[in-house]
Write a structure and sequence with these properties.
By secondary structure, the protein is α/β, with parallel strands linked by helices. It is built from ten helices and twelve strands. The two termini are 22 Å apart.
Length: 280
């Protein structure tokens, strides 16, 4: 309740943060990070920027001294060539979702991978499990890297064979075309695509027939709170991991990198859940 009552004060010392993406109007990152700033007493403001001109946006981050940014679809890979430094884990993953601006020097990091693994490991071990990651974009790279790092047996499942095979080859894993995927033999299924995200909530990345009771099914989409995939997986008897868990864990990592303060994780989760329930 204290966070709800706290007054957001903006002055000449306020540090500006944001999320850049296309689309970005659905993002609840501002709700989460602004609540965390207020709770911790940090003089910062976080806003959403709809970005189609990525080089222009990066120039703006420098010129306006925006202290940090989250990076979302579709910029997580392309942003890497525009930064001054990319840390080793993000370089291995091949995607950046976090920017830190230190006196005009922009550094890129990836909080998606550790955030997603923290959420997944709360529900299931990954080592020696057969894991299907649906997608081959920036989020897929982060999740796939985490799976391999934790000893999972990875298969990339993607509509585009070129992109899917490329990622699978990079990670020395298997590839399966989405059209051929049946779910058979897999312990964990992870959707990293935007299929099922608001406003197209009636869509699923795979058919019901691919879901089996022994599976753990994770969907990184957090808006809506219960995607059609998560609902179908629960109905099929699967263990489910919704997108809120990953979203909050990766956001907490970002917050701590930007501020040097301990993230109020439970508050951040509560703010996201409250915002999503209001949308239902």
């Amino acid at each position: 309740m204290a966070a709800r009552a706290a007054i957001l004060t903006v002055d000449s010392n306020t540090r500006l943060y944001g999320v850049i993406g296309d689309p970005v109007s659905h993002s609840l990152s501002p709700v989460m990070h602004n609540a965390a700033f207020r709770q911790s007493g940090y003089n910062g403001v976080y806003v959403a920027f709809h970005v189609t001109d990525l080089p222009g946006a990066v120039a703006g981050i420098r010129i306006l001294n925006i202290r940090g940014c989250s990076v979302t679809i579709p910029h997580k890979v392309a942003i890497m060539d525009l930064l001054d430094h990319v840390d080793s884990m993000a370089r291995q993953i091949g995607a950046v979702n976090t920017i830190v601006n230190e006196d005009g020097r922009l550094s890129g990091f990836n909080s998606d991978s550790p955030g997603a693994m923290a959420a997944l490991l709360e529900k299931t071990p990954v080592a020696r499990r057969r894991v299907a990651v649906i997608g081959a974009g920036g989020a897929a790279r982060a999740l796939a890297h985490g799976v391999v790092t934790h000893g999972g047996r990875l298969t990339i499942v993607n509509r585009s064979e070129d992109k899917g095979c490329q990622l699978a080859t990079e990670l020395e894993s298997d590839f399966c075309p989405l059209a051929d995927f049946s779910g058979g033999g897999f312990d964990i299924l992870i959707n990293t695509t935007s299929v099922g995200m608001t406003p197209k909530t009636d869509q699923m990345p795979v058919s019901h027939a691919c879901l089996r009771p022994a599976m753990t099914v994770m969907d990184i989409v957090y808006n809506p709170l219960e995607t059609r995939l998560i609902r179908a997986a629960r109905d099929a008897g699967c263990t489910v991991v919704d997108g809120v868990a990953m979203f909050v864990h990766q956001g907490a990592i970002q917050f701590e990198r930007w501020t040097g303060k301990k993230a109020p994780v439970q508050l951040m989760k509560k703010m996201i859940l409250d915002a999503l329930r209001q949308k239902q």
